[in-house]
Amino acid sequence: MKGDKEEQDDAGYPLDRVEPVTRVRVREVVGARLHGDHEAVNGVVNERNEDTADFDEDPDLDEAIKLDAKHGDFYLLRGIVYRDKGDLDRALAEFDEKVKLDPAQASGFSKRGDLHRVRKEYDLSVADYDQVVKIEPEGPKGYIDRGWVFVLKNDLAKAGADFDKALELHQNDPSALVGRGV
Question: How many CB atoms within 10 Å of residue 69?
Answer without folding.
Answer: 12
